[in-house]
Design brief:
The complex is a heterodimer. Chain A contains 6 helices and 13 strands. In chain A, a hairpin with a 5-residue loop joins β5 and β6. The radius of gyration of chain A is 15 Å and the shape is globular. Chain B is of the alpha/beta class. Chain B has a single domain, classed as TIM Barrel, CATH 3.20.20. Chain B has 10 helices and 11 strands. In chain B, α8 links the parallel β10 and β11. The chains are: A alpha/beta, B alpha/beta. Chains A and B meet through α1, β8, β9 and α6 of A and α2 of B.
Chain lengths: ~200, ~250
């Protein structure tokens, strides 16, 4: 099983790579669309703004590669933080722009009375337990100012509460995304990654 | 619900971890890589690692060494010390730092925090506000050379410039293990809306409880308690949890 961490110039690549090493997942880090096309598992990390990320993905041909690869139906993908948000149809950070469109929905700014970014450890309410099994605790580490609003309730894998419900994870078939950072969420985060990588596409 | 954070703060002199008292008398307390490994196995919420002599000795932080520290950690890590440019921040983020801690440059260059926040996102730009009480009852922004700046005003300013977090240390309480300066914490919390980490004075779990009860703080940092007492971050969070504060409980694992 070949796994590629997609390098589009924005992201916590070192941390994600370290977490995959820790759970024994062989992987490469690549900015090459051809390598994405050949991979079985795609990892889309990301820190930064939605628009800048999409510009990088589009100009490098990685957007098309990701969409084409996933359209073949025998690959799986995990998006982390901004990488999860990019799965949406539309983002608004800082202006309206198109996402990868792998999970219908949009990414909008957090509107709440609490400080933004939502930063720190928060607990999940799990809707889809596929990757959230055997956990000793449900606290995960979040850092974000925008949040994913899926068009379909059924795509919500987990919620958290920050002055109201916030989508913490999405899943639609082989496409999984988490707003929190599993690579920074200690044992529970590593467990979620283990489940994801153990699953068949 | 968002949990309170208890954060070990590791201070490094380029060779070993040191613990200061009121920012003086550094005492060697161990090896950073081993310490990071222990704190990771205790499932701490976050870790702050800062090279407190880099800037004054005119050297950069030792990236390969810091990477070894970061590689031990599967929780968020903030790295500080000797940051002089946007490139320095980029270097730290590339080796896996989640946030960088900036002090001198935030004082010397009034546009730097804004530039850094624009380039890397506010969430990864933390500013160290070290505050020393004045005879008049206010707090002066402290560093080796006098700043003449009011610490609370400075906190407000860096928030406006785009800092994502303030690590607020009471110089008077540093290493004294006799409780936090809750007046200072309240003064800064009243002035800013970004997350603040209160540091300086936590010597037993009751000190943390007092801090959380007397202020609206959501995060506290400490070091001496972890070196010189039997208490772990779990004991502190247990104490806070018993009094109704939302805390993340994880038994130590591997």
């Amino acid at each position: 099983m070949s796994c590629v961490i997609i390098n589009y110039g924005m992201g916590n690549l070192a941390s994600v790579s370290k977490a995959l090493r820790k759970i024994g997942v062989e992987h490469s880090i690549s900015a090459d669309p051809d390598e994405v096309m050949r991979a079985q598992t795609l990892v889309l990390p990301g820190v930064g703004s939605f628009q800048a990320a999409m510009q990088n993905l589009n100009s490098s041909g990685l957007s098309d590669a990701i969409k084409q690869r996933m359209a073949k139906g025998d690959a799986k993908l995990i998006g982390i933080c901004l990488g999860m948000q990019l799965l949406a149809d539309t983002g608004y950070e800082p202006e309206r722009c198109q996402g990868l469109g792998l999970i219908p929905g949009e990414v909008v700014q957090l509107q709440c009375s609490l400080p933004v970014p939502h930063m720190g450890w928060n607990n999940l309410e799990v809707r889809n337990p596929t990757y959230f099994r055997d956990l000793q605790d449900l606290d995960f580490y979040f850092v974000h100012s925008y949040h994913f609003r899926p068009a379909h309730e059924s795509d919500i894998a987990a919620l958290t509460d920050y002055d109201g419900p916030v989508v913490a994870a999405v899943q639609r078939g082989p496409v999984f995304g988490c707003q929190f950072h599993p690579e920074k969420s200690q044992l529970s985060g590593l467990k979620v990654l283990e489940h994801f990588f153990a699953a068949h596409a | 619900m968002l949990k309170v954070r208890i954060i070990p703060v590791l201070t490094f002199n380029g060779f070993a971890l040191v613990k200061t008292k009121q920012f003086g008398n550094p005492r060697m307390v161990g090896n950073p890589i081993q310490a990071a490994r222990v704190f990771n196995s205790r499932n701490v919420d976050e870790l702050v690692f800062t090279d407190i002599t880099a800037t004054y000795s005119g050297r950069k932080i030792n990236l390969p060494f810091v990477k070894e520290v970061i590689d031990e950690c599967f929780m968020p890590v903030t790295i500080g010390g000797g940051i002089r440019s946007l490139d320095d921040i980029n270097d730290l983020l590339k080796i896996g730092a989640d946030k960088v801690l900036i002090k001198n440059l935030a004082i010397n260059d009034r546009t730097f925090i804004a530039e850094a926040a624009r380039m890397f996102g506010a969430q990864c730009i933390s500013v160290a506000v070290d505050a020393r009480k004045t005879p008049e009852g206010s707090w002066e922004l402290y560093r080796k050379t006098p700043t003449g700046l009011d610490a609370v005003e400075f906190a407000k300013m860096v928030e406006q410039e785009g800092a994502g977090e303030i690590i607020l240390t009471s110089v008077d309480r540093d290493g004294m293990m006799a409780g936090f300066d809750t007046d200072l914490v309240n003064a800064v919390l009243n002035a800013v809306n970004i997350p603040v980490v209160a540091v300086g004075g936590g010597g037993n779990p009751d000190h943390f409880l007092e801090l959380f009860q007397k202020t609206g703080i959501k995060a506290a940092g400490a070091s001496a308690i972890f070196y010189f007492t039997q208490f772990t971050s779990f004991d502190i969070k247990k104490k806070l949890g018993d009094h109704g504060f939302p805390a993340r409980f994880m038994a130590a694992g591997n």
